Amino acid sequence: MFAPVSIRNLSVAYHRKPVLRDIDYDAPEGELIGIIGPNGAGKSTLIKAILGLLPLASGEVKIYGKPYKEQRHLVGYVPQRESVDWDFPTHALDVVLMGRYGKLGWFRRPKAEDREFALECLQKVGMESFAKRQISQLSGGQQQRVFLARALAQDAQIYLMDEPFVGVDAATEKAIIQILNELKQQKKTVLVVHHDLQTVTEYFDSILLINMCKIAAGPTREVFHADHLQKTYGGRLTVLPETSNMIVTR
Amino acid sequence: MTDYWIILTGALVASACGFLGCFLILRKMAMLGDAISHAVLPGIVLAFLFSGSRDAVPMLIGAAIFGLLTTIIIQTLRGQGVQSDAAMSVTFTALFSIGIILVSLFTRQVDLDLDCVLYGEIAYVPWDPLKLGGMDLGPRAVWLIGAAFFISLVVITLFYKQFKLCAFDPALAAAIGIPVTFFHYLLMGLVSLTTVASFESVGAILVVAMLIVPAATAYLLTDRLSVMLGLSIGMGTTSSLVGYWIAKLLDASIAGCMSVTAGVLFLLAFLFSPKHGVITRWWIR
């Protein structure tokens, strides 16, 4: 049995400055996994490294036992919302349709069934009535939902999501978490870069705590406690009263 | 008849440039067209020196090589942490200067001067015909620019979804296996080809203007990429047509009048575009 995502000795550097060092991790299949750590801890870098978007200084990443290049079709990706220009001349449905491009190969164009599938994905995130809306006219939460729908259109086994809860309204957050749970029920593995410590125990089955190195990984109830958080966040973490209630004390 | 050849040449330059300009604008690389159009000069000069003729083919190859070289240098500098606009300016001023030095060094060997390299004159286009077996096939510029436009059309149509995704979300494009760097250089190759094919016969100002202005105008008028591409061609053609008659009326520079017309069309869109126009929005409020 191969893990959906298996990371060995992974190190990444930007302009020779190390960002990630010696990460070893096996993602458990069929779980919602939170990647937790402070700003600049290398969470997004980790996701990009898994997707082969960055050169690795050392180590390797395997998707179900094989290199990412051979397994692209199994992986869906939700980049950070701010990473694209929302003034791009296109509408919501068209963005979702981009999720089908990977399956189309070099020359084929999206067909009617791709369009239908994309529309279904928009429906799942509750955005079907905005299908023909120019994307700059959507709210932040709506844009995030379109991005999620696009990942659904990729029809993958593993989903990598970079900060999907940033800058979204409460309704969108609820809608997203509902979709994530549906994906889990379909035995899909979902890795989510997340920074809101208050919702960690509620959302995720297991977590990976990183700050350049791996601090800890495992089931949330075992791993998410004050010791590890202190190690992950260093002096920067002021444990708020309401957060500390949620942290399991040993 | 010369009227129509000049208008057709202007329209072809405007369409070919405007079409590619859409992608430059969406990728926030509008200035790259300007950079390439200057940086190809050493390529043109070297091609002259090696081939010893003013033949279009070696010149196009030389220029295309330097066009690509420009984008590679810019990309490398950026990758090493140089600011994007600084990388562009440094590269194209350096290459352009090398071109000027080459021209000044070798003008005695080849019949070549700065004027004819830098400021092709669209008014002379009809008097440089393409002859095949003694048959006059119309101006050489029309064939050259027409071919460049045709190649761009075919390539962009064939890989429309790749170019679109690379422009909107290069990270996702790379993640699903689209060779983003390849398509970047393919686009730059098309820009170099088009720029050079136009440059020699119609002059620098018209090329630089048409790479940006019609596309920027189209961007203000629509929310669809496909419509934007079509509109940029329409805007370019209109600029050529109207610009030519204004030039005739005023007896002024044709390329200048065409560029100014494109600018006026942009201003109109900027003020009165149904969705984004400054006046329109003010009126609705």
From TrEMBL, chain A:
Belongs to the ABC transporter superfamily. One of its GO terms (molecular function) is ATP hydrolysis activity. Transmembrane segments: none annotated. The keyword Zinc does not apply. The keyword Nucleotide-binding applies. Signal peptide: none annotated. It comes from the Bacteria. Residues 5-237 form the ABC transporter domain. This is Manganese/zinc/iron transport system ATP-binding protein. It comes from Thermoflavimicrobium dichotomicum.
Automatic annotation (TrEMBL), chain B:
GO terms for cellular component: ATP-binding cassette (ABC) transporter complex. It is a multi-pass membrane protein. The keyword Transmembrane applies. GO terms for biological process: response to zinc ion; transmembrane transport. It comes from the Bacteria. The keyword DNA-binding does not apply. It comes from Thermoflavimicrobium dichotomicum. InterPro entries: ABC_BtuC-like (IPR037294), ABC_TroCD (IPR001626). Belongs to the ABC-3 integral membrane protein family. The chain crosses the membrane at residues 6-26, 31-50, 56-74, 86-106, 141-160, 172-196, 202-221, 228-247, 253-272. It holds the Pfam family ABC-3. Its main location: membrane. SUPFAM superfamilies: ABC transporter involved in vitamin B12 uptake, BtuC. Keywords: Cell membrane, Membrane, Transmembrane, Transmembrane helix, Transport. This is Manganese/zinc/iron transport system permease protein.
